[in-house]
Amino acid sequence: MIQKYIYGDPIETDAVIKEIPTSEGHPSYGTISTQDGFSFTYIMQPEDIVYGLGESNRGINKRGFLYVSNCTDEPNHTEDKQSLYGAHNFIIVDGINHSFGLFVDYPTNLTFDIGYTRQDTLSITCADADLKLYVIDGSDAYDITRQFRHIIGRSYIPPRFAFGFGQSRWGYEKPEDFRKVVSEHRKAHVPLDMVYMDIDYMDGYKDFTVNTEAFPDFKGFVDEMKEDHIHLVPIIDAGVKIEEGYDAYEEGLAGDYFCKKEDGSNFEAAVWPGLTHFPDVLNPAARAWFGQKYDSLLSQGIDAFWNDMNEPAIFYTPEGMAEKQKITKELLSGDSKYPPVAIFYLMSGNDISSDYARMYHKIDGKLVCHNKVHNLFGYNMTRAASEAFAKLVPDRRILLFSRSSYIGMHRYGGIWTGDNKSWWSHILLCLKMLPGLNMCGFLYVGCDLGGFGENTTRDLLLRFLALGVFTPLMRNHSATRTREQEFYQFEDPQDFAAVIGVRYRLLPYLYSEYMKAALGDDLYFKPLAFTYSDDAVARQIEDQLMLGNEIMIAPVYTQNAAGRPVYLPEEMIFVKFLADGTILQEKWEKGWHFAEVALNEVPLFIRKDHKIPVVDVAEYVDAIDMTTLQYIGYTDADYELYTDDGITPIA
Amino acid sequence: MIQKYIYGDPIETDAVIKEIPTSEGHPSYGTISTQDGFSFTYIMQPEDIVYGLGESNRGINKRGFLYVSNCTDEPNHTEDKQSLYGAHNFIIVDGINHSFGLFVDYPTNLTFDIGYTRQDTLSITCADADLKLYVIDGSDAYDITRQFRHIIGRSYIPPRFAFGFGQSRWGYEKPEDFRKVVSEHRKAHVPLDMVYMDIDYMDGYKDFTVNTEAFPDFKGFVDEMKEDHIHLVPIIDAGVKIEEGYDAYEEGLAGDYFCKKEDGSNFEAAVWPGLTHFPDVLNPAARAWFGQKYDSLLSQGIDAFWNDMNEPAIFYTPEGMAEKQKITKELLSGDSKYPPVAIFYLMSGNDISSDYARMYHKIDGKLVCHNKVHNLFGYNMTRAASEAFAKLVPDRRILLFSRSSYIGMHRYGGIWTGDNKSWWSHILLCLKMLPGLNMCGFLYVGCDLGGFGENTTRDLLLRFLALGVFTPLMRNHSATRTREQEFYQFEDPQDFAAVIGVRYRLLPYLYSEYMKAALGDDLYFKPLAFTYSDDAVARQIEDQLMLGNEIMIAPVYTQNAAGRPVYLPEEMIFVKFLADGTILQEKWEKGWHFAEVALNEVPLFIRKDHKIPVVDVAEYVDAIDMTTLQYIGYTDADYELYTDDGITPIA
């Protein structure tokens, strides 16, 4: 049962799309105060687990930290970070006595203190008591999750090719760069369906343009790639460059589609292109205009996009820069109370909250400060694209995912988990985020395999990929100036072919489970506790996941490990895809085991009395030969295989 | 067998103190080149493990990363960091075919590429082919380690009180701050032997001074603390403030004891006090002078010190600042090729290598650039203190440890592992460093429990402490402006009393094992592989350690975990110190187990046919009642208890 409570005068987010009557009074859980902003306080029992928060730091169990929903361009995902790129305000308290879900529909800074200040106290607070609070009762955490998923609407469904493997790097500039990626993969028989185009494909980082010097015939290049069964995935950034004669800029000015300053002039912020205006995607007219701009690429054959920098990221604003320059000049002239060394301390960091305070949206004809609606920006940029696709290409699914998001955006696109690092701990961080993301509606998700920032190593990349085999979005991506991390930068390329190949062998299963989860408002990734809720050990496992209804995954995430300990909550079949293409199957008893897994192997566990389909390896999704399909596991079991054409949108 | 090879004209480091004849030719392992600097290259087998490198990032097995020996004030110990505070150039290749140790005695930047560039290739390189290379053959990695330890001399032995618990925080300023720490501990019966004095006790951050406004009778205050069985541990920084009339400055000038610039004038660098000179501790006369300065505090009753900022850390130099100001002015005036935003990028970070290039030491009467001897500075600062103590207080052990170090310094003091963070991953990082530190001679070691930077939580602090129970240096330390993390900042203080109390119950065992390791050139902490070298699983365990000859430790290091999986290489007795003071003992079979450990409990494992002494809890080391000693474990076994007065230096 779901109850909706309205406090004050909430801003409409369109997160929830099912009509729910408003309840009077207060929820039966916790204590609410609207005296000084809003607060919800609840005393947790020691055994209670708290799930949710989607893209957030720390564990599957969110207890023991303080999280702030505040979409942030944060490239250092260390354990102390309270905010990442998304704001996913849904939690479930899975208690011994009481279990309930909470969705706090509030579009800007919101704090979840989940046993940080006191270990037993859950406290949710925000500055304005203007919000909708949804309280969900259910039989258990899984039931509560499905009820929530039902009211926020069906998750985004990508085209089937988006379940292939993609190669990316910030730094590919010219057709030769992309052709090299494709030819190296094809030559070594490493499957590949997508190559990503980071910011360098554009003309001066201008959205919806292509560098015509590098790509004199872009459509021809897109076609050439398609002949090789490769989908190009260009990036689109939030900021529209201020440049006379540039069509997006001129149209935005003419239509009055840009975000404002308080005086009604257009807000300016520097990002990759230099000074830009942000499209006011919270305004339906501006959203429709911005979405329609994607047609310039769609019409050249592009069928896949990633939206970036849409927190929105800001390098500086002219006003913020002027303030910093004033401080710097005072320091240099000796008129400051700070010693000279302070230059380097004061100048470091980049607090853009005062920039956001100068930015405004036009909502229902009124100017609303960005700080009141901050977490809706990336959501509505992606919604802009998705709503336009429905009109421009109504008969086709388009791959679309975003860096910033809010619940509601899960209907329009997927997300990747932003700028992670080539750290072993980031394999595990990615794994831990996956079930929470699913709970919040985001099914098409994945992290930058190999790590975006810093330098990867061969073994790290292989272990990252062996997790990525299971994430709907499977992409190797890295930043400029880091060690190059395409598979062919390392010795023994056949090991990469083996690991990435497993993705394609499992694709019928992964696609089936994705589609069932999407169509049934269900989970693709689940904590073990959702399947084995009575198993006290399973309830606290933070490094294994259930995937669909049939399998458990337990990736290796430590360096120099020949394997890892794994907990089996029941008898299962240990499956290992070996480098020679054979599949090892061993029946293992309930309990602790050490699973040996070499760098070129991929392990999984099939639940008792379940089976999964596997096919022969293929070099791209459309080449998968379904006549090679066989079942492994408990082969007497039933399995419902889902198939469709992978392209037609689902009504 | 140890062979010494000399290349070029090495700088004497005094790391090795045993005479070893120089071998001709090249080592029998690997390939050496002295063509372009120095390089040693060796092809590793897949099963080979590489140990060593002391205070360094990543795992017990050092394979898969690139490490640079370059003592660095690095406050962000993320996985990508190649250099920390120490330079410990000893590794062991523990191979299926060959095992050997290598000590590269070279006092500045040295790179260990241990399977980073290619997974199978170990490559050690440095710029100048002027070094001593020690190659050690032995029956196994443990034997090789002990041979190495034997040639570098006996490890530092602290007074016994240094095995108590210490409370620290950057921010304690006044006697009331320290009194509060002590009274809160005594009131709650949380044992305490030491309170640390970070930089705020000094007069303007001037070494060997005390803020007399806060401490009008410092000796009286030291005595007052002693009556409460508390040892104060003041910090000493490397830089001596430039201030007329300040005795250390005046004496250093008069004696010509400071580091130089190339023109022979004194080198200036800003640290906490503002501009300072660095004592030229590589010059024996300056070292003797600087060491003798500690007497100003010894003579007031102080018997414990920590040496800090001795990489040496530099905030800026006047020359470096002038260069940065020039760039800034160009940027502000528009004369620069960079856009204004570049101010914030160019100014961030603090590359001090050009500062070091302007700094010189006087060695044997000749000016030697700091960059040639960089890793010896902290070592010799600590040596200065230790050599002075031997003269000033020959009948007493003084507690002494350092942030920066080089092998050789292990004879003079301990180290702490620098400015870690309140991250769960830093519990494990600390654990993984411990055996490598021991291999390199550093036995008196520990990390900042609870984490130095960022904000701790109650559960994190308790789990950190449950590892700290076993580290010779057991200190809760945190940075100013982080969440306060003395135990009394959190609910249920009795849980902290329980965990810290276990340290005191185990102290006879821990002290015995420390002394045996120190006197026998042996290890206090060992990888499991050193004890169970034939056990393939044990060989790759990275989160359990052997401590002394009797026990194995397996701390819990993940949040919200009710315990952890543990591998037993043989039957052992699982021991859990419970919060009520009782001790649970259970015999467990060889294999994988899940050990349940509550936040207020401390686990350990006693090896088959071994026993350990435990005593009743005491509130400080000197209050331990040895008549309460009993043995737990396999009580028929033998145990050699080591006891002494804990104060008299060992000849």
Description of the structure:
- Chains A, B: Belongs to the glycosyl hydrolase 31 family.
- Chains A, B: It holds the Pfam family Glyco_hydro_31_3rd.
- Chains A, B: This is Alpha-glucosidase.
- Chains A, B: Residues 156-512 form the Glycoside hydrolase family 31 TIM barrel domain.
- Chains A, B: Keywords: Glycosidase, Hydrolase.
- Two copies of one chain form a homodimer.
- The longest helix of chain A is centred in the middle third of the chain and has 16 residues, at 318-333.
- Chain A starts with a strand and ends in an 18-residue tail after the last strand.
- Chain A is built from 16 helices and 36 strands.
- With 651 residues, chain A is an alpha/beta fold.
- In chain A, the strands form nine sheets. In chain A, strands 24-23-21-18-14-13-12-26-25 form a nine-stranded parallel β-sheet.
- In chain A, α5 (284-293) packs across α11 (377-392) and α13 runs parallel beside α14.
- The mean pLDDT of chain A is 96.
- Among the domains of chain A are: 2-152, Sandwich (Immunoglobulin-like), CATH 2.60.40; 160-240 and 270-314 and 373-507, Glycosidases (TIM Barrel, Alpha-Beta Barrel); 316-349, no CATH class.
- Chains A and B meet through α7, α8, α13 and β33 of A and α7, α8, α12 and β33 of B.
Radius of gyration of chain A: 24 Å
Q: State the CATH superfamily name of the domain at 160-240 and 270-314 and 373-507 in chain A.
A: Glycosidases
Distance between the termini of chain A: 27 Å
The quaternary structure here is homodimer
Contiguous uncertain segments of 5+ residues of chain A: none
Largest sheet of chain A: 9 strands, parallel
Domain Glycosyl hydrolase family 31 C-terminal (chains A, B): 525-610
Domain Glycoside hydrolase family 31 TIM barrel (chains A, B): 156-512
InterPro entries (chains A, B): Gal_mutarotase_sf_dom, GH, Glyco_hydro_31_C, Glyco_hydro_31_N_dom, Glyco_hydro_31_TIM
Family (chains A, B): Belongs to the glycosyl hydrolase 31 family.
